[in-house]
Amino acid sequence: MSPLLLTKKMIKSEELQKIIEQYLLGTDKFIVELKVKAGNNIVVLLDGDTGVNIDDCVALTRHIESQYDREVEDYTLMVSSAGLGKPFKLLRQYLKNLEKEVEVELTDKTLIKGTLLTADKDKITVKVISKVKKEITEQDREIPFDLIKEVREVISFK
User: Fold this and answer.
1) Under CATH, which architecture does the 13-81 domain have?
2) 126 pairs with which residues across the strands?
3) CB under 8 Å to 71, separation ≥6 — which residues?
4) Of 68, 11, 14, nearest in space to 38 by CA
5) 3-state percent breakdown (helix, strand, coil) of the chain, nearest 5
6) Which CATH number is 91-153's, of 2.40.30.10, 3.40.50.150, 2.30.30.100, 3.40.640.10?
7) Residue ranges of the domains in the chain?
8) What pTM value is reported for the model?
9) What one-character DSSP code corresponds to residue 40?
10) What SS3 state is found at 78?
11) Residue 49: which of 95, 99, 88 has the closest Cα?
């Protein structure tokens, strides 16, 4: 008697992305990252212009599960928000964080902290406030994306 060979169907990330985008159509939610790793280990990072909560993640998880048969594809699935403190990956994340405090790490390891004023496909503008001996100065710095390693929202508990 030959051993039973089980072959699982690989999930294609392009197919899954279309399923998710169709589901999110008409909402303010968007995919920040989608990975389908070896063994059908799926990771979806979600964001929204007004944020993402646990109910959003659960609803998307259920929708994805309704599209695939675990007996055929045999997958693991993790859907979560892009999260506070995570670096921005998409222009849309920059745009939703305008007027918020950010920390910009440049490719030369320089750190710039300030208020995100503008963002477009080429650059961001950050208002930097400096205090030297009781003198406060403000400067708007334009920073091209090719000089940026990462940008994160500054989390403040004030």
Assistant:
1) 2-Layer Sandwich (3.30)
2) 116, 141
3) none
4) 11
5) 25, 40, 35
6) 2.30.30.100
7) 13-81, 91-153
8) 0.81
9) T
10) strand
11) 95
The pLDDT profile of the chain, 158 residues, written as one tens digit per residue, is 444 445 568 899 999 999 999 999 999 999 999 999 998 999 999 999 998 999 999 999 999 999 998 888 889 999 999 877 789 999 999 999 999 999 999 999 999 999 999 999 999 999 998 887 888 889 999 999 999 999 999 987 76
Nearest to 29 by CA among 18, 39, 40, 21: 21
Phi and psi at residue 92, to the nearest 5°: -60, -35
**Structure-derived torsion over alpha carbons of residues 93, 95, 96, 101, reported in degrees to the nearest 10:** 90
Order of strands, sheet of 76-81, starting from the edge strand that comes earlier in the sequence? 29-37, 41-48, 76-81
